[in-house]
Write a structure and sequence with these properties.
Ribonucleotide Reductase, subunit A; 312 residues
Length: 312
């Protein structure tokens, strides 16, 4: 990070500090205390092989569909790597004041998610526990590399606002498609948390747009047009994501309809008129990106509805 970027970050953080404090108070007034152990069907559990001499895991023991397992593994590994996110964000935001208080609150709430997901998956024998633990070790050993590290705190905030929205959608769809009411209840609880987290970060983005619309629009363009979310750094992410794409947990259509378009509309990114040359260029690029993704989705859907005959 350059000295100029650090100076700009300090200015942004100073301007946003009261917004962070206000939104932290708002968040604490809305968030609900809940306990992971109350969501887990402990009576279904049994010992695994190893020191306790239980039964080894076998694929047939899982009552979850393959796509639900894949989606929950991705979600759990993302939550497991919170120490890396915590370090990355605090390095940008500082270790004192409202910023630090929020990051600690956020990470504590997200940690509940990893607890309930792992306990559910282990108790119901939904996944191979040895493979899951090895994936956790590999993911945490690799850490988390912020794609916008060095680009300033603003892009980190924007990335998080979109990541939380994406997580809300994935959690909710995973639960509804799991064919397990207990899983559905867990994922709905997680989605409710992620929604509040998304609103917190999105409110900061709105404030940044009012403080400096030009710079904020350029930053948003950088984030939106390459957004994939931190889960992409999970081991075997491509293979896992293919499973829940096929099942409709998270597809390109869902990405544009449930994440990109609502985000762009809420922030009125394509309607702003208070921009200079760089901001207007970024605004135009966002609009073209949205149109391009929409067109690609329509083409793909058309091909699925009207498949071309195969020739030898």
């Amino acid at each position: 990070m350059t000295g100029t970027t650090e100076k700009h970050d300090l200015g942004i953080m100073t301007y946003l500090a009261p917004v962070v404090a206000d939104n932290l108070d708002r968040h604490l007034s809305l968030t609900k205390e809940w306990f992971p152990h109350q969501f887990v069907p402990w009576s279904e559990g049994s010992n695994f092989d190893g020191p306790l001499g239980g039964d080894p895991w076998e694929p047939g023991q899982s009552r979850l569909s393959e796509h639900a397992r894949a989606s929950m593994i991705v979600g759990l590994l993302g939550e497991d790597n919170l120490p890396s996110y915590f370090f990355t964000i605090l390095s940008a935001h500082g270790n004192d004041g409202a910023w630090a208080e929020w990051v600690r609150q956020w990470c504590a709430e997200e940690a509940r998610h990893s607890v309930v997901l792992r306990d559910y998956l282990h108790t119901t024998r939904a996944v191979d526990p040895i493979a899951l633990e090895r994936a956790r070790m590999a993911h945490m050993a690799n850490g988390y590399v912020n794609a916008h590290e060095g680009d300033g705190v603003l892009r980190t905030i924007m990335m998080l606002s979109m990541s939380e929205l994406q997580a809300r959608v994935v959690h909710r769809n995973t639960g509804m498609l799991s064919n397990d009411p207990i899983c559905d209840r867990i994922m709905a609880r997680l989605a409710a948390d992620e929604n509040l987290h998304m609103i917190f970060y999105r409110n900061l983005v709105e404030a940044a747009l009012e403080i400096d619309p030009e710079d904020a629009m350029v930053a948003l363009c950088d984030v939106i047009t390459v957004f994939g979310g931190p889960a992409q750094q999970i081991p075997d992410f491509t293979a896992l994501s293919d499973q829940f794409k096929k099942a409709g947990v998270y597809t390109s259509r869902i990405h544009i309809d449930s994440v990109i378009n609502p985000y762009v509309r809420h922030l009125r990114l394509l309607d702003r008129t208070d921009l200079g040359p760089a901001g207007r260029k970024a605004q135009d690029r966002i609009g073209r990106y949205v149109n391009r993704i929409e067109l690609a989705c329509r083409r793909f859907e058309s091909m699925r509805q009207d498949p071309q005959p195969q020739t030898n």
